[in-house]
Amino acid sequence: MKQRMCLTALVALVTFFVAPVVADEVTVSGVFGLDPVPEGTAMAVWVPLESDESIAGVSWYNNDGTLPFPELLAVAGSSQYPSVLEEAVVVGEQVSGATLGWSTYSFDTPLASATPGLFVIFRLPPGAAFVDEGHGAGLGYREGDGQIRSWLTSTAGEWDLLSPEYQMAVTPVMNTDKDGEVLVLGAPDEESEGNSQGEIAPATLVAGMTVAPNPFNPQTEIKFTLPSASEVKLTVFDVRGRRISTLVSGALDAGVHTVNWDGRDNSDRGQASGVYLVLLEAGSVRLTRRLTMVQ
Q: What total of structural domains would you count in the chain?
């Protein structure tokens, strides 16, 4: 059967063709596509990276091998929201894959990030209407884990979050050559000699956020780094997007800051066990982490 739903920011019809298949021992729940595909449509998938990690390519479950993606792009950022497409670098053109199968594309140069990760962006061929499995531009998806991972955009330039109930069948191919050349996205000196030698140039301060312990009971410590002084908002949400607690709201200096959350809302009411999201907003920085509270 088919499930269809409209995204208000797109004049397109989103189609999930739900016919489970198994590929490479990974269950793919179905295929995601658009009918029709507006000009400029792209899908972004978040790839978290440690400071010493880089990716050599990407694998994905492809729907129609006769319809290549016009561009494959990458951009540094945070897991909360993709950067604008104008900031992305093109890492592949006319990228083709198999029909109803896993496909792999290798980058000319492995990619690292000066931020907590990067987005791999598939630009969809305009007008290539998704029909069903094997016909039309589309990517496979599988059951999500509650993490925010995938977004969709059109000519409007605004990113629409796809439900955390779904996870696009896109996986990074990690780079195992630690001595080769690496392109660092989001670094302040990407063209420096150090980067051409494959070294990841450290920024003095790079935005980041960690949570420990996690899972937690009765409280957890949220530690975050600000590259520069800015107005900061640190908020806890439940998985339905309901604001639970505002932990920070105001100006903070650059540097490392620590805040504790004891599982209570803004009215000092204890919350139930479960999964929560903490969102850091500071200037252009938007970071999110998953929290699990157990009683």
A: 2
